[in-house]
Write a structure and sequence with these properties.
Elements (H helix, E strand, L loop, with lengths): L2 H17 L7 H21 L5 H8 L7 H6 L9 H13 L2 E3 L5 E3 L1
Antiparallel strand pairs: 1-2
Helix pairs in contact: 1-2, 2-5
Length: about 110
């Protein structure tokens, strides 16, 4: 696992830990990260076609900065993902009227 993949993996673990602060226990997500790693989990979730429940929960708590979609589109991590994965992340955030700019800021569209 490269350093960048390890950083992404740690970011996925951070999602789970931070979400607990507002009583969202994403146990299935944590298990996926443990089983498939952070990058593998992101690829699986974004290849599923439909937004996961977790994205909506994070949106309800105004914490899309904790979403897999945000991390996939963050400039630091983009090289880990192909265009299809990044396009799906963009589409899902766009449905919630959000985007990620070139500096990695989450912005309301």
């Amino acid at each position: 696992m490269s350093n960048l993949e390890m950083d992404f993996h740690q970011a996925m673990i951070h999602i789970y830990q931070e979400a607990k602060d507002f009583d969202y226990f994403a146990t299935r997500f944590r298990m996926m990260v443990e089983q498939h790693g952070g990058v593998g989990t992101a690829r699986r979730l974004l290849s599923a076609g439909n937004a996961q429940e977790g994205l909506n929960r994070l949106w309800e708590h105004n914490r899309l900065d904790l979403s897999v979609e945000y991390h996939v589109l963050h400039p630091k991590f983009q090289e880990l993902f192909d265009d299809n994965i990044k396009e799906e992340a963009t589409r899902r955030l766009g449905k919630l009227d959000y985007t990620v700019d070139k500096e990695g800021n989450l912005l309301r569209s």
